[in-house]
Design goal:
The longest helix is centred in the middle third of the chain and has 17 residues. The chain starts with 12 loop residues before the first strand and ends in a 15-residue tail after the last helix. The protein folds into 2 domains: about 150 residues, Response regulator (Rossmann fold), CATH 3.40.50.2300; about 160 residues, Response regulator (Rossmann fold). Helix 6 crosses helix 7. It is about 35% helix and about 20% strand. It is α/β, with parallel strands linked by helices. Helix 1 links the parallel strand 4 and strand 5. Strands 3-5-4-6-7-8-14 form a 7-stranded mixed beta sheet, sandwiched between helices.
Length: about 350
């Protein structure tokens, strides 16, 4: 897939240190270097790697930071990439994705003068104080996506003509079953069942965040079984599932960031977490000297998770559905809804 990458490869000099290693891409506007190592999904995933990158671009625009990005092609790249960024003099190094947990914490331990942050990575007792974990309540936005899907697939199936088949079946395509992905899944199932107890939810774990063909295959199989709405939490693999929905004329729900642009006539909304703002806030804390170790959790209470706009579908979504979603948000904020966070808590 052709990458959406606007950064120009260049050499940046800060205190006599060059940032021009092969494979690194940077944007220089002066100031401290804020760096990022992607997971294997890389930039262009239209998901959490792109979201974190956009957060660093905010730091560039608002704080005058220099942005340096290195893309990981395989998991064995994690420690060398993170270490290289620290050794090159980056003030902040952001690791993206749960699979980088061990690598980023090890690198932070060996580079105590550099600040590190991990998107979708929490902290444990004994973790280095120069590491901050950034977690999201994915189960909350997953729940809202489930409420939408559960209502549309049956009670309001006539709302979007030609897209919904009234078979009361929806699907969810997962990447690797890491905690964030599991939270998305169980939240989605719980939300759908809260408004439609008889809904059939098909869930497939593809064990990959980078295989679009596998994601498409999984979604096509669900559609063949009657699914008319397919949610994904699968990175680039999930882009394949959106493609399948687009081809078959059913609805898709995106993830992490607003993915409507991937297929405007297919992606009805996205279960979003504000990776952009969370990443920026870490960079800002480094810039103003308030960085603290430990874990920052972003959820509905901070308006940091939710649903993307309905875009071209907005006029077709019944007001009653919008009202149910708004009520669910209010109930979550008031503590009136407890949403499961693991498969062990839900009868799949």
């Amino acid at each position: 897939m052709k990458k959406v990458l606007l950064v120009v490869l260049m050499v940046c000099l800060v205190a006599g240190i060059a940032f021009a290693r092969p494979g690194r891409e940077g944007a220089s506007t002066g100031g401290a270097v804020m760096a990022m190592a992607t997971d294997v999904g890389g930039l262009g995933d239209k998901s959490f790697n792109d979201g974190a990158y956009q957060g660093l671009l905010l730091a560039r625009d608002r704080l005058g930071a220099q942005v340096v990005v290195v893309e990981s092609k395989q998991q064995t790249d994690y420690i060398p990439n993170l270490t290289g960024l620290a050794e090159d003099g980056a003030r902040l190094v952001v690791a993206v994705g749960f699979l980088m947990e061990e690598a980023v914490k090890e690198t932070a331990t060996h580079n105590p003068d550099t600040y590190f942050a991990g998107i979708d990575i929490g902290t444990n007792p004994g973790d280095p104080s120069n590491f901050q974990g950034v977690l999201f309540n994915e189960h909350e936005c997953g729940y809202l996506a489930g409420v939408l899907a559960g209502l549309l697939t049956q009670q309001y199936a006539s709302a979007i003509p030609g897209k919904l088949n009234s078979q009361n079946t929806i699907g969810v395509v997962l990447g690797m079953l890491v905690p964030a992905v599991e939270r998305y899944e169980v939240g989605f199932i719980a939300g759908a069942r809260s408004v439609n107890p008889t809904v059939n939810v098909i869930s497939v774990t593809t064990d990959s965040f980078t295989d679009q063909a596998r994601g498409k295959e999984a979604a096509l199989a669900m559609i063949d079984q009657g699914a008319d709405i397919v949610f994904h939490a699968a990175g680039q693999t999930g882009l394949g599932s959106i493609n399948a929905c687009d081809e078959r004329g059913v609805l898709a729900i995106g993830v992490d960031i607003d993915q409507n642009a991937v297929a405007p006539n297919t992606v009805v909304t996205s279960a979003m977490k504000d990776i952009v703002q969370a990443t920026y806030l870490v960079a800002e804390s480094v810039a103003n000297g308030t960085f603290a170790g430990g874990t920052q959790v972003y959820g509905i209470d901070r308006d940091a998770v939710g649903l993307a706009p309905f875009h071209g579908f907005d006029s077709q979504i019944p007001q009653a559905v919008k009202d149910r979603i708004a009520a669910a948000i209010a109930d979550m904020k008031a503590g009136r809804i407890r949403i499961p966070t693991s498969r062990a808590e839900i009868n799949r």
